[in-house]
Amino acid sequence: MSDERPQVAVLGGGSFGTALASIAADNGASVHQWLRDTELAAEINRSHRNARYLPDYAMNPAVVASSDMRKVLDGAELVFVAIPSQAFRDVVRKARPYLNERQILVSTTKGIQEDGFKLMSQILEEETGFTHIGVLSGPNLASEVAAKQLTATVIASDDALTRARVQTALGCDYFRVYAGNDRYGVELGGALKNIYAIAAGMAAALGMGENTRSMLMTRALAEMSRFAVALGANPMTFIGLAGVGDLIVTCSSNLSRNYRVGYALGEGKSLEEAVEALGQVAEGVNTVSLVRDKARQEGIYMPLAEGLHQVLFGGVPARQMAQLLMLGEQSSDVEFTLSREDVKQARRLEGDV
Ligand SMILES: NC(=O)c1ccc[n+]([C@@H]2O[C@H](COP(=O)([O-])OP(=O)(O)OC[C@H]3O[C@@H](n4cnc5c(N)ncnc54)[C@H](O)[C@@H]3O)[C@@H](O)[C@H]2O)c1
Ligand SMILES: O=P(O)(O)OC[C@H](O)CO
User: Fold this and answer.
1) Of these four, 106, 267, 314, 353, which has the most CB atoms within 10 Å of its CB?
2) ipTM of this model?
3) pTM score above 0.90
């Protein structure tokens, strides 16, 4: 008898891949999850728990884990790719012989490829040439999703079928899926917020207050949207879940790996020590260099990213950088209503600059 259930594949055995596989299975899909680690796959099938990444949460027992890519992709209608950005293209290449253009491919990865400043859905496009491509992003701490805490996310694609299928496959009483069509903006939002989560973790460890955190998050949002709009995204995307929503959660929670790296740095650890203690990937550490270089290249004003880069890689103490940023040029609150140039002009007339 053939299996009538929707067929879902998840590539990646980390915490988000695991949480996602479980949601799709809770929703009645037949789910196969690909991991490179054969032993962990066997362990998941035995205990229905991912002991390495989400040891405290039971998975839906219907999820079948495997390190055999062909088996995992066989018959899949919907494929989620939850692999860190540095390994993303390699894994997609490994999957490519078993993919076909009727499938829907969705990236969940919030990072940027160094070579060519590529986002993950662009890699999916380049490697496959398929049309049904999307990005899943939003305030989605994996362990909270696994605990079935009420959560919302965004499926962004210019392809209506991709949006509808993902809403059907994942939408349930604890996971609500909103649709968007600014794939680039949603994907950039997910990658950029990691930078500011590091800064927020650092500020918390240094004992800075709630006013400071609020200022940091709001100015981060201004900076993120300035950058994304300069590269072609829609500014309105940043008032959504994948913009301000994800920024809030990642800058506020020590469940975020990026926040935890920042916190460890604020406590005085070196970057190497902080990353090693984390034992997982914090995408923001790479993203800050890529974004800072891109911003310089394109002439985009990014004082927070520039400052954080100097703290992480230039040996500037975080507190000193915070003081420098406070004394930076006076600027506009909401640039979409009052431009930075207008503020400068008024100050010139005042004779202040
Ligand atoms: N963890 C979260 O809370 C969360 C939430 C939303 C989105 N995301 C995004 O989803 C993506 C996946 O996150 P995650 O937490 O599931 O996993 P992760 O980023 O911690 O990656 C771990 C997984 O990737 C695998 N991996 C690493 N290098 C590999 C390689 N060369 N070949 C094959 N597999 C490799 C590891 O074995 C492991 O299964 C990340 O980019 C993250 O930004 C994470
Ligand atoms: O653990 P982080 O810092 O990679 O962040 C997790 C998610 O992106 C939160 O939405």
Assistant:
1) 106
2) 0.98
3) yes
